[in-house]
Amino acid sequence: MSPLDRHPADHWDVAIIGGGNAGLCAAITAAEAGARVIVLETAPKPYRGGNSRHTRNFRCMHEGPLSVLVERYDEEEYLEDLLKVTGGRTDEGLARLAIRSSQACLPWMEAHGVRFQPSLSGTLSLARTNAFFMGGGKSLVNAYYRTAEGLGVEVCYEAGVTHLELEGGRITRVDVTQGGQSFSLTPRAVVVASGGFQADLDWLTRAWGPAAKNFLIRGTPYNRGVVLADLLAQGVESVGDPTQCHAVAIDGRAPKFDGGIVTRLDCVPFSIVVNRDAERFYDEGEDVWPKRYAIWGRLVAAQPDQVGHVIIDAKSLELFMPSVFPPIRGETLDELAGKMGLPADRLRATVAAFNAACGDTSAFHPTELDGVATTGIEPPKTNWARPIDTPPFYGYALRTGVTFTYLGLKVDARAQCCTASGPIENLWAAGETMAGSILGQGYLAGFGMTIGTVFGRIAGQEAAAHAR
């Protein structure tokens, strides 16, 4: 029997909407503070956890070695990295709060069942900045569910929240459907942690235009923005731009939904990337991959048919973590072009011009900025610029893969939501649904998990205190 059948509407102190990382951090924190907590998760149990199932790591400030993290990564360097990818479009106060709080989060995560491992080799270069989950995001999610249930948190799966009634500056009712039945709950406090709207393709198309029809959704198909739309329609303050999102270039063979991390391509720094006309359109070597990989989704989205093509040669094949799909192979550039649907003569000309612009490659270093650059060509390639001249040649098709959208709920340092009239006394938000407060554009590897963990814990603490 579902908890919704077993208990009266006012049984719970805190209702958490969404069962991913942010929601689970809120649920655990609230339960440890003595609150009776229910988690309302739209997905079926095997698909619980939202986009957190697909994550790999957590970006963490530390003043010295911490768990699996080496050396130090202080607040100012962390903030500088964030400002670089966002172009300054961030609430610095909330950003610093997330950064400073991340140091205490890592031992908290370990104390609640999460296990870490050293970073993998390859193009990630994150041993100093990011702690990797042993077993990936699915293991993290499972650990948190075990912890939450051990604390008495009740979880409802396939429980879709359809409406939050906002009345007189507070949420007075939560409407839920489960198993064809409708329920109304009256918890004392509510935490919204139900992600962005990226899985609602109609909404995505309204924001982006027809190009969005060619996008792939890397994460869960259950983040459709139902609760977000409901609250915005009632005057809850929003933050962020609906066209901004965490979008990366992924293997064009990925499924429409839920392809996850394994469809990401990490080969761009060692490649040239061309559009359908076999023309380069951006500097493939602009920065180390964790700082710049998230710009490529938008770059590909701006190309004809929203498609790009990675071209590498044999000497670069082992320098990056492979996609779940093998690359397309050609003994010659013409053969590769034919298999990839590219004009062979244009591809040959583009590669020849690029190769001619490459200079001394003796300083080539695959895991750090090496300054091995082109000269006299636009766009330049400012690092890792080696001629593509060693057969066989390999290619991948790229498409825009959206992870989560940045239009969300505006919050303060207590994770509390508001209207134009002031704070909503019993409503908090955490995770992707409020990340636009900090991520105005761009993305920094592992930072979504930082935001979710920090603000999930804050929201859980605040909600439990209010309920008491």
Strand fraction equals 15-25%
Beginning-to-end CA distance, first to last residue: 28 Å
Task: Please identify the structural class as seen in this structure.
Answer: alpha/beta
The helix fraction, in percent, is 25-40%
Shape: elongated
Per CATH, the architecture of the largest domain is 3-Layer(bba) Sandwich
The level-1 CATH class of the largest domain: Alpha Beta
Average pLDDT reading = 95
What is the number of strand segments?
20
Number of domains: 2
Largest pleated sheet:
6 strands, mixed
What would you give as the CATH superfamily of the largest domain?
Answer: FAD/NAD(P)-binding domain
Radius of gyration: 23 Å
Enumerate the spans where pLDDT stays under 50 for 5 or more consecutive residues.
none
The DSSP helix count reads 12
Q: The CATH topology of the largest domain, please?
A: FAD/NAD(P)-binding domain
In which order are the strands of the major sheet placed?
6-2-1-10-20-19
Structure overview:
By secondary structure, this protein is an alpha/beta fold. It has two domains: 3-201 and 406-467, FAD/NAD(P)-binding domain (3-Layer(bba) Sandwich); 248-401, Alpha-Beta Complex (Flavocytochrome C3, Chain A, domain 1). It has twelve helices and 20 strands. It has helices at residues 3-6, 21-32, 75-86, 92-111, 136-150, 201-208, 226-233, 289-292, 296-301, 333-340, 344-357, 447-467, and strands at 14-17, 37-40, 57-59, 116-117, 130-133, 154-156, 159-167, 170-178, 181-185, 189-192, 216-217, 238-239, 245-251, 272-274, 307-313, 328-330, 393-405, 408-409, 416-419, 422-429. The strands form five sheets. Strands 6-2-1-10-20-19 form a six-stranded mixed sheet, covered by helices on one side. Strands 11, 13, 14, 15, 16 and 17 form a six-stranded mixed sheet that branches. The longest helix is centred in the C-terminal third of the chain and has 21 residues, at 447-467. The two termini are 28 Å apart.
